[in-house]
Amino acid sequence: MKADQFQAPDYYNLDDLLSDEHKMVRDAAREWVKREVSPIIEEAAQKAEFPKQIINGLAEIGAFGPYIPEEYGCAGLDQISYGLIMQEIERGDSGVRSTASVQSSLVMYPIFKYGTEEQKKKYLPKLASGEMMGCFGLTEPDHGSNPSGMTTTFKDNGDHYLLNGAKMWISNAPFADIAVVWAKNEEGRIYGLIVERGMEGFTTPETHNKWSLRASATGELVFNNVKVPKENLMPEKSGLGAPLGCLDSARYGIAWGAIGAAMDCYDTALRYAKEREQFGKPIASFQLQQKKLAEMITEITKAQLLAWRLGVMRNEGTATSAQISMAKRNNVEMAINIAREARQILGGMGITGEYSIMRHSMNLESVITYEGTHDIHLLITGADITGIPAFQ
Ligand SMILES: Cc1cc2nc3c(=O)[nH]c(=O)nc-3n(C[C@H](O)[C@H](O)[C@H](O)COP(=O)(O)OP(=O)(O)OC[C@H]3O[C@@H](n4cnc5c(N)ncnc54)[C@H](O)[C@@H]3O)c2cc1C
């Protein structure tokens, strides 16, 4: 793969909206991605392997639970810092960002928000340092966009719960030490349970043959009469709102992350277009190529403003789930369109692993589907503005 020459586009001087701390956090993540992710990611994706050696580095740049307080071993940063870290990591690879998103928003967030003090003390510091890795089990074979139909259940069995069912498409599952699992109790109420690797009856078969997010490990979670200690139930929130609260946090991170992938594709295409000559001139001098590049930077700039404003509202605690849906949907579509156009600017070279664009393009096919599909986010906006849900 080519040396990483990334220059981040900032057409509207968004840096002026960031604090010194934001820029410090962002620059540290950017440098780390350049040093530790760029040189190894293409090979990891080609081999379809999660590069475990980067876990410590992810922890060091604060990518695990960045907005959780320092008393639990986390960085205690604000939401914009969290977004900027996700942007930089996804600039490297959406699969690596997925690992960090799951750990932060889907494992640490529910423990922090819905867990007991004992659970927070037991798990959060180890998850922050990367000593322990987690995954999040919501999707089931027959329940994807409609998780409320889930059939995974737990029942009271004296001093423990008995958990039965299966989850699929679970990021980090093959190597996770713990799983935050959403299941219904005997009354049909959804709760989150912390299931630990090694519990009898709990297995995590890996999902193979993915053409997308190849550097992220995906698997199933299978529960066959798993005895889960009662103290592993997260008691502070139940119902579908509990997992949806986690998804809000993760979708917010994706809205920023997608900008990173788009920035990398744009920057690569711009550099290539200025260097590559055809008909005796750089291809950047042709109007058709300029149109592509000009539209890309326009869309990136709009997405950056959307993410930044959403970050301000997240810091204030006023961002609604529907506002988060809009940003996730818009920014991922923006990135996937830019990846496709950028690939064309590179001609034949665009399909090779010499450049990151094709990998981003394939990765974004998962990003546009997980954490709520593109269609579902549109329906969320539709329901929000009309007051009429059109899901059924
Ligand atoms: C690589 C990868 C990693 C993932 N990681 C995780 C994870 O860590 N944890 C986890 O729990 N899940 C994870 N997922 C699952 C992901 O969230 C689901 O794939 C997603 O929610 C969609 O569910 P589905 O695949 O079952 O599609 P379906 O729900 O079957 O949807 C299929 C199509 O129908 C459309 N559709 C569905 N309902 C409606 C409707 N009412 N109106 C109009 N159109 C509709 C959808 O938009 C979609 O286009 C991951 C998925 C992938 C691909």
Quick description:
This protein is of the alpha+beta class and 392 residues long. It is 50% helix and 14% strand.
Output the radius of gyration: 21 Å
* Strand line-up in the sheet with most strands: 1-4-5-8
Helix-strand pattern? HHHHHEEEEEEEEHEEHHHH
Number of distinct beta strands = 10
Low-confidence stretches: none
- Distance from N terminus to C terminus (CA atoms, Å) equals 47 Å
What is the overall number of helices? 10
Q: Which structural class matches the secondary elements?
A: alpha+beta
Largest sheet: 4 strands, mixed
- Proportion in helices: 40-55%
What small-molecule ligands were found? Answer: flavin-adenine dinucleotide
Q: Shape from CA axes?
A: globular
Fraction of residues in β-strands: 5-15%
Which quaternary structure do these chains form?
single chain
Which whole number gives the mean pLDDT?
98
